[in-house]
Design brief:
alpha+beta, about 150 residues, Nuclear Transport Factor 2, Chain: A, globular, about 30% helix, 6 strands
Length: about 150
């Protein structure tokens, strides 16, 4: 017997574009870091993904990324904000450029604002996962001129 097909609201939603997906993943990463959920933050990395943070050795693989993120948190890094500036993609690969700001607590308790930029390489392995995430600081002299 014939039954009419009924659409659900989910069927009516268009597929989300790559840029929106990656922006959301980036915000989820920052929120996870800020709340101390380093294991959750590390899950946006592929099994062989790498995080390269300034003044630290590269962390290869999710467990090492989690360990580096925890080390950064324990060293006083907090309140991370990330802003995606550009996303380019082709097929199952994507590149994201952006800038970040965070606070660093010094040994005397004083909070110092820091800013920088990042480049991320994503690969769609079922879900979009980070293959490489590289951060660099913006020097204070450059930051002051740009402001």
């Amino acid at each position: 017997m014939y039954q009419q097909y009924t659409r659900t609201p989910a069927d009516l939603r268009p597929l989300r574009d790559v840029e929106s997906q990656l922006r959301d993943q980036t915000q989820d990463f920052a929120t996870s870091f800020n709340t101390g959920n380093y294991d959750h933050a590390a899950r946006v990395f592929a099994d062989d993904g790498v995080l390269m943070a300034p003044h630290y050795e590269g962390a290869y693989g999710q467990k090492h990324v989690e360990r580096l993120l925890r080390q950064l948190g324990e060293a006083g890094y907090s309140d991370m904000r990330m802003e995606t500036i550009r996303v380019d993609h082709s097929g199952d690969m994507a590149m994201e450029l952006g800038r970040f700001a965070l606070m660093v607590r010094r040994a005397d308790g004083v909070m110092i604002p820091e800013r920088g930029k990042y480049v991320r390489v994503w690969r769609r392995l079922g879900a979009w996962l980070l293959m490489a995430d590289c951060w660099s600081w913006t020097s204070p002299a450059v930051s002051d001129r740009a402001a």
